[in-house]
Specification:
It is built from 12 helices and 2 strands, in the order H-H-H-H-H-H-H-E-E-H-H-H-H-H. It has 339 residues and is mostly helical. The mean pLDDT is 78.
Length: 339
Amino acid sequence: MNVPLWIWAATIAAMILILALDLIIVDRPWSKTKGPMEFGMKQAGWWAVFYIGLAVVFGLGLMYFGGGTAGAEYFAGFVTEKSLSIDNLFVFYLLLTGFAVPKKYQHEVLLVGIVIAIVMRGIFIVLGAQVINAWSEVFYLFGVFLIYTGYKIIRDHLKGDEDDKDFTQTPVVRLVKRFWPVTNDYHDAKMTVKLDGRRHVTPMLLVIVAIGVIDLVFAVDSIPAIFGLTQDAYIVFTANAFALMGLRQLYFLLAGLMDRLAYISWGLSAIMVFIGVKMILHALHENGVHVIEVGIGASLTVILGIMTITIIGSLIKSRSDGDKDGQVEAKTDGSADRS
């Protein structure tokens, strides 16, 4: 699509306004008991529905004004980025737990992290679009990278490597600790405080730095994936932004369900491999090789199908495991009663 500059500006301004209103509502400056509120399941659920609804309305508008292909590419990209964000939430969970971030400040930390992620991905999108325009063979590289990423997701899942990683001790965090003293406790949401005449950084700054670094790693994975579905920079950016904007609410909604999504890694791996193969086929087609190309409609169907099967399978397994645990507990209680 040929998107005018004013539409880009209006889109970015609208997103900034929505995030600002989100932060104001959560911080409640008008409240007598000032300070951020803690997010419960109910509030997170309503906000998650709001952001998903907003993304769907935008996609329908894009389909109306930009055509069916543009709309399908957006929805395929949005579903892919949203799916990847579910796996990212597990890392956020480990990070916020490792830094012992108070629950009432977690929303603010995640908001800053999301803003950093949007900026980083915007930079990657611009660079990626330039590379694709200058060198179409980059699709081979992206395709192989995504297939390897899919393999790595399963390898790490089977090894349990992600559980063993200490995300609070990244090289950047250690670098910050080398140059500035760090307080043991949080001082509200402040990132620095002055103690005994010397400026200290707080754990709040460290967790934001750690999230920024992790966002950079996530961008390296997700941007090639969505470029495998569309090369339109506006669609790539908006699909990423809308997937990220509701990530905070999704975190609080799924925080208690992380362990129940047993097959999420398998689903994400399958999506990465599928898009990687699609990119390689596209590169071959662009270079005059007669191969089958996967259309955007088929891509959207496959991605939705994989995530649906993954989530349903995970919930069935979780319920089955819960029933087994209940039977074991009942047998144990029965044995104790007889003795």
